[in-house]
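haha ok so turns out i had the wrong file open the whole time. this is the CORRECT one, sorry everyone. sequence first:
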Amino acid sequence: MAEPPLLSLEGVGLHQGGRWLFGDPATSDGLDLHVGARDRIALIGRNGAGKTTLLRLITGELEADRGTRKVKPHANIVWLEQEPDFAAHSTLMDFATSGTRAPPEHAVESIAGQLGIDMSREAATASGGERRRAAIARALAQEPDLILLDEPTNHLDLAAIDWLETWLTRFNGAFITISHDRTFLKRLTRATLWLDRGNLRRKEVGFGGYEAWEEQVYAEEARAAEKMDAKLKIEAHWLERGVTARRKRNMGRLEKLWDMRAARAAMISPAGTAKLKLSSDAEFKSKAVIVAEDISKTYGDRPIIKPFSLRIQRGDRIGIVGSNGAGKTTLLKMLTREIEPDTGSVTHAKTLSGVMIDQQRALLRPELTVRQVLAEGGDWLDVRGVRKHVQAYLKDFLFDASLIDAKIGTFSGGERSRLLLAREFARTSNLLVLDEPTNDLDLETLDLLQEVIADYEGTVLIVSHDRDFLDRTVTVTLGLDGSGTVDIVAGGYEDWEAKRKKGAAQRPKSSLPDAVESAEEPVARKPESSTKLSYKDQRDYELLPDRIAELEALIAKGETALADPGLYSADPARFERISKSLELARAEKDESEERWLMLAEQVEG
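then structure:
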């Protein structure tokens, strides 16, 4: 007999703001949703589609205007909110142990220790990353049967994201997650909920197959609209159709990016040095816009940035990655000359004119209108020297033109972030600085941001924890491991990660920040005494590298096949087989890498 679902929504409708957000009685029977005990679900939808509202309906915090909500007896549903309220709490622990289902303090401390967060920290002065870790500790310590994750990777560094992914992989319950982090979604989800124009679709395929499914649905709708000769219906979908076309254009941009990376790889000098060179040094110097010579920074006795040199050319897209506290912001500020290095110098080209888009979003006051933000109250604005009407420009950034006089206070966090991007990209500049630009953005806006960066003629500096975004945008990655060393790698996050894994056996310490490393030390650190390998261990040590290479080739082949937008519609069964094989190959690769690294540590020990 089949196990009953943890939760069911049947025929649910919600009336908000004078309209039906879900389940309009005139056009639908309402939303239906059933969540099983081991479901791993991605919830996808544009900003403003109602994703967070749907989670509130699932928790029971919000009551539907029609339909029913059923929960399995004694099932524990926990919501990790995107922006939890810390105002009434003195410390992070006070926040974590509050509420009707407050977890015990020892359970919170156990998870907080693994995340490297001091729960005695005052809530009012805690950073965004500290608050996010505290909220995660609180949610996981409640031992949920179903956990709802609203942008769980926002404000987390790479080490914390990796820890959360590992926890969710081993989690025995179910989860539904909203996230802009494609890598996170691809690694963890097995089903997709797509909230689109008030309707909820479900497909038993993880996020890796979502885009092909989306393409199929839109193609079917377009064919149906053409048969009905419903021109107005087609016009009403200009946003979604624009996204589809944009994604196809981005394939060409990715090919251009790969060419740029190949050229940049040829400039990097042999391992062990930290300079980028061209075959013609004179040509390279003439194109340089930022030149850093032997720059370093130390706080107290701790080296944040050890001496290194870098020449950044016109048109470079530089990604800066590393754990919290590794020195990313310090490096960015030195390169932009916001702070002075302790040693060395940073020189800018005389013509360099920069625009910085930071995490604070302070420019967008809630009482202002879109017109005031973009055009100082007028109808026209200059977009990099070209005069353009505000409403036409809004469409470029996926806004409905009718929102021209809407107040900023009515916008979601993602819509505000998109509006800030629109404002700043209009300015004439040849240097763009993006500090965690992907926070609060939906997937369509990320596609748009990648397109704008690809077409930007200047130089781009990006600090981000979004691995997929970096892989799609940057030509050079500056990787900080927390020791002060800056690795310069041609390519994106995956290229840097591959270099780290290759050298992992030779490093005496992990690249996690001190707080996280010490917390995980009892399980992660192996004995330093020499250990003779058994016959099986020795065989694994010798053969696993070849197996890992085979798996990497299989994964690349599978990902290439799934990237074909016509595969799902042409052969759904093959699409499902490839998706499952890809999931198994990724799992085996992760296990093989962990096993080989463990054996390598024993050999080195």
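The chain has four domains: 7-223, 260-353+429-504, 364-427, 526-604.
again sry for the mixup
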